[in-house]
Amino acid sequence: MANERGANLTITEEFAEKVKRANFMDRVMRVAPIMVLAVLILVFSCVCGFHVFLAPSNLVAILKQLAIPLCVAMGLTYVIMIGSIDLSINGVVGMTGSLAGVFVANEVNNLNLGLFGIALAILSGVAVGLLIGLVHVYLRAPSFMVSLSFMYVCQGIARLSYHSRILKITDKTMLWASGASFLGIPFITWMALIMFILCLLIQEYTAFGRHVYAVGTNEAIPRAVGVNVNWVKVRVFMLAGLMSGVAGVLGAIRLGIGQVSIGDNQMFPAQAAVVIGGTALAGGKGGVQRTLIGVLIMTILKNGLLMCNVSPYITDGVQGLIILLCVILTCEHGKTVISK
Amino acid sequence: MSEKTAKQRFFKREHLMRYISLVSIVVLATAFNLMQPNFFGRMNVSSMLRDDAALLVMAVGMTSVLMFGSIDLSMGAMCSVSNVLYVRIILLYADKFKAAGIEEPNVGGVMALSMAACLLVGLCSGFMLGLIHVKLKVPSFITSLGFMSVWTSVAYLISNKAESIPRMMKGASDWYKNSILGGWIPVPLIIALALAIGFYLLQSRTVFGRTISSIGGNERAARVAGMGVDRTKIIIFTLAGMCAALGGVFLASKIKSSDPTLGDPYTLMIVASCVLGGTSLSGGRGSCLGTILGALTVIIIKNGLTFIGVDAYWQDVVFGLFVLVMIVLSIDRSKSTRGIAVK
User: Fold this and answer.
1) Could you state, in order of their start, the residue ranges of all structural domains in chain A?
2) Structure ipTM
3) Between helices B266-276 and B312-330, what is the axis angle to 10°?
4) Nearest CA in chain A to B69
5) Is the CB of B337 inside 8 Å of chain A's CB atoms?
6) Is B180 helix (H, G, I), strand (E, B) or coil?
7) Cα angle vertex A201, ends A28, A39, to 5°?
8) What angle do CA A257, A73, B153 make, to 5 degrees?
9) What residues contact A194, with CB distance under 8 A and at least 6 apart?
10) How confident is the model at residue B334 (pLDDT cuts 50, 70, 90)?
11) Helix, strand or coil, per DSSP, at residue B95
12) Is it the case that residue B6 has pLDDT exceeding 60?
């Protein structure tokens, strides 16, 4: 095929041209989010005043707001990198948050499992991820539909677990964790950062991490060289469940209560953070380090708009527009492309 | 030989889901009636059918979208927007009439105006959704997910709390209570059924309608054959947006009030109705007649679980699992699709 720039290119030259263009786009995608982040910080600092927006108290507030979206978005990054999607986040985070409240010491029941209870709550998230993965992979159901149904199931389980008596947590460890900070950074942010490093290590230094990219690019190739593609996918969904589980527990720590609303409004910010960070929805491209930038952008946007007294409802709608815009910019265009 | 069995299997699949919804309607209704003899009382039946009307109106719009293999996840949020908008406009006029000292205002005119406004918003939303999906090649589920977020916040911006239709304007919700045949068949259900049958005729008897299922079967072939694929898709998305808006108006009239989160659970209920009615999520198969049965099944389950006293919290779990099973059953896992990656 000839393009308008040179009608008589050889196939090799044309291929080189194509790779060059792809590399250039890739570099732009890498730099653009950082630029957006810098511009956002600058704009909000100018509008709200440097001493207000960059005050230590506001920076700590931003770090605290960062923790839960970061956890959720990292799990989602893996799912999006294999080309699937996870819409169950609101439900899973709400469920694990509620269960964390149920299992540790609280004002309603006598089930005092302590740290073991927290582990159990996180494990319930992993179990949901496993189920989503199994149904999606082995029964060949589209992931968005499977996870959407599981969102409702998990929200139901969450509400069942505490039966409209909101659980005020009295567990000493969790109460301590909600107020603790080290080097000025709150405890829950430390937890999220540890999870981030863990995810980054898995992504860069394990065979599983590299398989995720291969599966996302073209799953026929890893299948042909003997990678168990199905199991890679199931593990990705389990990881997403784990991260949502951790997010739910952090939410319970932050609020001091266990209830389903911990999960409300978690999915759209995470979705937006992943795509704005530069992880393509088609799969095979991206990574958790990019998502960290995306989460920073979303958190600062939310915090900044709040500081400028913009209605929070508008902020929520802006997330949808950001998702749309990023997907429009990154998805494949052209006359022969078929999108469903 | 193998060709024949393949064909037989195809026909079985085609009709399996429709039988499932018919059988489950009969079985569920009988079971609920045995547990609670009042289940078939006139009050409950007409209440169920009134719920059914609102769901059916929206599910009819979704059926056509699913038939060409796309999906519109923003319908629930659109329904919320139209719901709050309808009540908001009525409240606006109620205040105006009160200020002017009019005791018995022209409710019909206000109703028509606010309904038209809602439908217009639905039309614009559906048109934009279709345009972005078709022209910019963005997958429909992610486009509509973005729209869902936007419309949810728009609904909150119009009214961030539940508002009820005032007494002087109760004509705007009274029409929903009217019924014929001795109070068994409510008027809104007749409108919904007319809409469903209209859509069915459009799908099965017109060139435009056949184009929809051709796109779902094989979009590339439909394109090569010179069918107006893009135009068809955009028109269907626009119609689906209007159906969602109409559903919002129906719900506002039913509960005589508005709520910015009212439409949230409907997204899954709509998809469930279509899938139960035999519409495949991968496109090419389905009909609005099946959706009529599907919507009724969903309503019987929802209503029946409440009626026999199942905990409201259990209902979410049961319903979510039920939809999951239905979707898994409806998916084509024959040999011909084995190589295709499911995302």
Assistant:
1) 68-330
2) 0.79
3) 40
4) A340
5) yes
6) strand
7) 30
8) 75
9) none
10) low
11) helix
12) no
With a CB-CB cutoff of 8 Å, which residues 14-53 of chain B face chain A? none
Tell me, what's the pLDDT at B1? Answer: 42
Domains of chain B by residue range: 42-330
Whole-number Å distance between alpha carbons of B6 and A140: 20
Whether residues B327 and A146 touch (CB distance < 8 A) is answered with: yes
Name, in order, each residue with C-beta under 8 angstroms of A248's C-beta and a sequence gap of 6 or more: A92, A93, A94, A95, A96, A97, A98, A99, A100, A121, A122, A125, A262, A263
Fold of A68-330: ABC transporter involved in vitamin B12 uptake, BtuC (1.10.3470)
Between chains, do A320 and B143 touch, taking CB under 8 Å as contact?
Answer: no
Cα–Cα distances (Å) from B126 to A148, A314, B71, B137, B144, in that order, read 22, 21, 12, 16, 9
CATH class of B42-330: mainly alpha
* Number of residues in chain A: 340
Output the CA angle B136-B139-B145, nearest 5 degrees.
110
Measured between CA atoms, how close is A152 to chain B, in angstroms? Answer: 5
Report the pLDDT averaged over residues A180-190.
84
Nearest to A140 among B146, B157, B342 (CB): B342
Q: Following DSSP, what letter does each residue of B295-311 receive, concatenated? A: HHHHHHHHHHHHHTT--
Interface contact A319-B283, CB threshold 8 A: no
User: Which residue in A196, A190, A181, A179 sits closest to A70, CA to CA?
Assistant: A196
User: What contacts A38, CB < 8 A, 6 or more positions away?
Assistant: none
Q: The whole model's pTM is what?
A: 0.84
Euclidean distance between the first and the last CA atom of chain B, given in angstroms as a whole number = 33
**B163-164 vs A181-182, strand pairing mode:** unpaired
Separation in Å, CA B148 to CA A205, B213, B277 = 37, 26, 24
As a whole number of angstroms, the distance between CA A42 and CA A49 comes to 10
Instruction: Tell me the angle at which helices A89-103 and A56-81 cross, rounded to the nearest 10 degrees.
Output: 120
Distance CA B343, CA B333 (A): 14
In the predicted structure, residue A320 carries a pLDDT above the cut 90: no
Q: Which amino acid is at B196?
A: A
* d(CA B135, nearest CA chain A) in Å: 9
Instruction: Determine, for residues A320 and B148 on separate chains, whether the beta-carbon distance falls below 8 Å.
Output: yes
Alpha-carbon distance of B295 to A131, in angstroms, equals: 27
User: What H or E segment, with its residue span, contains residue A186?
Assistant: strand A185-186
Q: With CB atoms and an 8 Å threshold, state whether A337 touches B149.
A: no
